[in-house]
Design brief:
Helix content is 24%, strand content 40%. By secondary structure, it is α+β, with helices and mostly antiparallel strands. It has a six-stranded antiparallel beta sheet with strand order 1-6-5-4-3-2, with helices on one face.
Length: 144
């Protein structure tokens, strides 16, 4: 399981917009053109990259489980074609006086170990989510 809390120096409505609006998501996360924060909606996208081992493409599939505007977004997280595993990703937002606390929890990511590569290990997810959270913070605080 991965869980991390960060503080972002902006209002909760701006954080919510960055989490749920495709044109903002593309600035710090992934571009999912048809994304809507609606319970039951299903989305998928492909992440492609090249590293020392060559070229890779991983499909991501998720279903929105819970939406509480400005408070919580929860969805499944799967890698069809690579793993039989499934996990749950939860974004929680807590408004503070001049900032917003963001808590990201990824439960069940160990279920992807059946894939057998370094890309689905706890260390890989930790590095990835840390980078994504920092990207969200940088985007919102610096208006990239």
């Amino acid at each position: 399981m991965y869980k991390k809390e960060i503080s972002i120096n902006t209002r909760v409505d701006k954080v919510w917009s960055a989490l749920t609006q495709p044109e903002e998501m593309r600035n710090w996360y992934f571009y999912i053109s048809n994304f809507e924060a609606v319970e039951g909606e299903i989305f998928d996208f492909v992440v492609s990259f090249t590293d020392e081992a060559g070229e890779h493409s991983f499909r991501h599939l998720f279903k929105i489980l819970e939406v509480i505007p400005y408070e919580k977004l929860c969805h499944t997280w799967e890698h069809p074609g690579h793993s039989e595993g499934t996990s749950t990703l939860t974004w929680e937002l807590i408004p503070e006086e001049d900032s917003t606390t963001v808590i990201l929890t990824h439960e069940g990511n160990e279920s992807f170990l059946d894939e057998g590569s370094k890309y689905f290990t706890a260390e890989s997810y930790t590095a990835g989510w840390n980078d994504i959270l920092q990207g969200l913070k940088d985007y919102l605080e610096n208006e990239i």
